[in-house]
Specification:
8 helices; Cobalt-precorrin-4 Transmethylase, domain 1; binds S-adenosylmethionine; disordered C terminus; alpha/beta; 5-stranded parallel sheet; single chain
């Protein structure tokens, strides 16, 4: 199993309980060290987690992903990412590679700068309905959230039909 584990935004103690349990039992633990940085270094994390970490730079992750995925079909490998593993990263690539090789994966999310930025007064999701249509929103690379009460099925995931209806309303400029 490949685990992608978010480390949160502050220091060693921001990992989730679930993430820490996985880190402590994995056969190899990689620390992705190029999309973001914590306030503490690798040694502090190693001491708190009680594990040796393998630093993974951009080249290792993007050009030599096979090293990271090696034996992940028969043992557990953890890939640690500061913030959330999918907050402004391209780690979906690693998941696609794992899936292609028949390796299962699990994501353990954590706080991301993309949500924490709200504490500076910047909000990412105050835009809806007609305003999206009228604005330059569709010419940008952006995201929006839908109303859980009326728009989504109970599992909270937007259905393809629902997204298709937006596609019809907004034309070819909207992509998901
Ligand atoms: C490529 S993004 C990755 C974000 C990360 N995966 C997450 O979910 O928070 C990294 C950028 O986010 C910003 N960033 C990340 N953590 C931050 C923090 N604790 N304080 C301020 N900016 C931060 C910096 O601009 C940094 O270059």
């Amino acid at each position: 199993m490949l685990y992608l584990i978010g480390l949160g935004l502050g220091d060693a103690k921001d990992i989730t309980v679930k993430g820490l349990e996985v880190v402590r039992r994995c056969s190899r633990v990689y620390l992705e060290a190029y999309t973001s940085i914590l306030t503490v270094g690798k040694e502090v994390l190693e001491e708190f987690y009680g594990r040796k970490l393998i630093l993974a730079d951009r080249e290792e992750v993007e050009q030599e992903a096979d090293n990271i995925l090696k034996d992940a079909d028969t043992s557990d490998v953890a890939f640690l990412v500061v913030g959330d593993p999918f907050g402004a990263t391209t780690h979906s690539d690693l998941i696609l590679r794992a899936t292609k090789r028949g390796i299962s994966y699990q994501v353990i999310h954590n706080a991301s700068i993309m949500s924490a930025v709200g504490c500076c007064g910047l909000q990412r999701n105050i835009i809806c309905g007609k305003k999206i249509q009228d604005s330059e929103f569709l010419n940008l690379h952006g995201s929006f959230y839908t109303d859980l009460r009326i728009q989504l099925p109970l599992d909270g995931v937007a259905s393809i039909d629902f997204l298709d209806s937006f596609q019809m309303d907004f034309g070819n400029k909207a992509h998901w």
